[in-house]
Amino acid sequence: MENNSEVVFVLQGLNDSLTNRQMYCAFALVSYLFTIFVNLTLIVIVCLERTLHEPIYIFLCSLCFNGICGASSFYPKLLHSLLADSNVITYAGCLTQIFVVYCYVFCDFTSLTVMSYDRYLAICKPLQYPMLMSVQRVALLLLLTWCFSLLEAIIGITLTARLPLCRHHINQIFCTNWEVVKLSCSDTTGNNIYSFVLIFTHTLQTGLILVSYTHLVRASLRLASNRKKFVQTCVPHLVTLLIFASSLVFDSIYSRYGGGKLQVLQNLLAAEFLVVPPLINPIIYGINLHQIRSRIIHNFSHKPGL
Fold first, then answer.
1. Residue pLDDT, tens place only, 187-214
2. pTM for this prediction
3. What are the distances in angstroms from CA 141 to CA 29, 112, 115, 147?
């Protein structure tokens, strides 16, 4: 059995004709550039506009930055593979991609949980909100979000890196933890246990979000002002959560039950959680949040010298 560091994986999901590769490359490049553009636009607007220096917008910037990281874990390697007409990736490159994807997923989930907590305080406890969501509390929540996500990713990638591999073919267009674990020829009990721990942890986070929204819906039904806040900030958050959760479900289904002849459709389903949320999230928030929408319209419609 060879040393893992010498392993080169074959990404079988990229086995398409050169003509198709060129078309996919153009589509991927446009999607990646647009994803970077919309996320950076929202981040820059929030940073430059003092009226947007509020917790919800700061958390939104963190979510958008994480979206850029998620997209960057996928598109550059995909574009390189398509341009070079190559479908291989080194062992170190594969683990690096898995690590960044891990961080993106965990950070997105935790960020959405923190944002639901922020909306709960803003709508259900408006008088105590400035004290409960102070600058120090916001900084602490951001630090915990990223540190917790990095810790989860480090543990996961460490468990995967210790496994000896017997096969080198990955039936996707990018590396995922589950696909690499399936290539192992040794016991994967530790990985399976950690998977259940992750499922439990993020199911608990989902439960916290649902509890928050139960209180938010009750509060919005009592007062018209709360109803307006709910529509403006909570509905985009809920849509974002549903898009991200459904994308992860598609990926999980594909990873475990994928197969067959519809390779293009399988690739789209597998990569949806890395493509759709980072692209859609800033658009959803940009359209629904009045403060951000008005600044975007002002910046792009303002003509210097007039």
1. 888 988 998 898 888 888 888 888 888 8
2. 0.85
3. 34, 12, 10, 10
